[in-house]
Design brief:
156 residues; Rossmann fold; 40% helix; flat; binds FE2/S2 (inorganic) cluster
Length: 156
């Protein structure tokens, strides 16, 4: 038995693409480490930044957001909202003491079970290398005040 750190990853998946990619990975018997727990949303555009902060404060060492490829979102362009939110979140979490590499966005279609499994495995390895986060003792209310003070726009 090894004492290797095993990260806990929370994954947000889009119902129409990446959740089905995860399903395909399972039915195709593609193996990836069991460190990830998936939360299904109807679209990656449903991602509220608070979900990510709650995940970290709840004990997640990493958060993976997955959705349809750009141009293939079932809700037209909502996944671009997810992209903007992830970019903003990466900037937000760094001053809060969370390495931005702990948050990752991946596009995966329903046919990309292999890609999904590979991306999950890669991300788990990356977070494992970063070590435990131990952010759960932080006050989410104080962190949210900081988030609310950030600008809406992301410079190009
Ligand atoms: S429906 Fe999949 S990202 Fe929007």
């Amino acid at each position: 038995m090894t004492n290797q750190f095993e990260p806990m990853i929370l994954g947000f998946t889009c119902n129409w693409c990446s959740y089905r990619a995860a399903d395909l990975a399972g039915t195709s018997r593609k193996k990836y480490p069991p460190n990830i727990r998936l939360v299904r949303m109807m679209c990656s555009g449903r991602l509220d930044p608070v979900f990510v902060l709650e995940a970290f404060s709840g004990g997640a060492d990493g958060v993976l957001i997955t959705g349809c490829h750009p141009g293939e979102c079932h809700y037209i362009e909502q996944n671009f909202k997810a992209l903007r939110r992830v970019m903003l979140l990466k900037r937000t979490i760094e001053p809060l003491g969370i390495d931005p590499q702990r948050l990752k966005l991946v596009w995966a279609s329903a046919a990309e079970g292999n890609l999904f499994a590979k991306e999950v495995e890669t991300f788990i390895g990356e977070v494992r290398d970063l070590g435990p986060l131990n952010w759960k003792k932080r006050s989410i209310k104080n962190e949210l005040k900081l988030v609310e003070s950030l600008p809406e726009e992301v410079p190009a």
